[in-house]
Amino acid sequence: MLEIVVVMSIMIVIMGIGFASFAMMDDDDPFEKTAQKLVQMSKYAHQSAVLQHRRMIIGFDEEGFGVLGESAGDHARQALPQDMKVFILRYGAKNWEKAEGHLWPFGEQGICEPVKIRLETPTDFRELAFHPLTGALVE
């Protein structure tokens, strides 16, 4: 019985250390929250466009991005973290442009332009590509 208690105690300690290391890894990525929010907004815009049979638009400005015309809810707006900039590569374009002033429309059928979004800080960047039929992130 004592051996079982000792083995279980060791397992709990190892699991606790493992869990703590995974929890700390999530905090190190400055892009994670912003990227997840953009993916959620694109899914929301896609689904809303199809269900409501109306055009939905994600707009970008110097402070962040959001679903235009939505005044409430989690999908209405996302502010950018300090020192983060957003760039967009539109379909057929060869160069990245600042996303400020760009609109990303989703048609009534949910079809959107296949864009790439680049989140950039002074030290690193992350690029996100979106599928035109689903608005989902392309891995």
Which SSEs are present, and which pair or pack?
Blueprint: H1 2-28, H2 32-52, E1 56-61, E2 64-67, E3 78-79, E4 85-89, E5 97-98, E6 103-106, E7 116-120, E8 125-130, E9 137-138
Antiparallel strand pairs: 1-2, 1-6, 2-3, 4-5, 4-7, 7-8, 8-9
Describe this entry's structure for a reader.
With 139 residues, this protein is α+β, with helices and mostly antiparallel strands. It has a five-stranded antiparallel β-sheet with strand order 5-4-7-8-9. Strands 3-2-1-6 form a four-stranded antiparallel β-sheet, covered by helices on one side. The chain has helices at residues 2-28, 32-52, and strands at 56-61, 64-67, 78-79, 85-89, 97-98, 103-106, 116-120, 125-130, 137-138. It starts with a helix and ends with a strand.
Give a count of the beta strands, DSSP E runs of length 2 or more.
9
**Termini distance?**
49 Å
The CATH homologous superfamily name of the largest domain equals: minor pseudopilin epsh domain
Low-confidence stretches: none
Q: For the report, how would you describe the main beta sheet?
A: 5 strands, antiparallel
Query: Any idea what the shape is?
Result: elongated
CATH class of the largest domain: Alpha Beta
Number of domains: 2
Please state the CA-atom Rg, rounded to the nearest Å: 20 Å
Average predicted local confidence, pLDDT: 86
Fill in the CATH topology of the largest domain.
minor pseudopilin epsh fold
Q: Would you list the SSEs in sequence order as H and E?
A: HHEEEEEEEEE
Structural class: alpha+beta
State the helicity in percent bands. 25-40%
| Proportion of residues in β-strands | 25-35%
- With strands numbered from the N-terminus, the spatial order across the biggest sheet is 5-4-7-8-9
CATH architecture of the largest domain: 3-Layer(bab) Sandwich
Enumerate how many helices there are, as a single number.
2
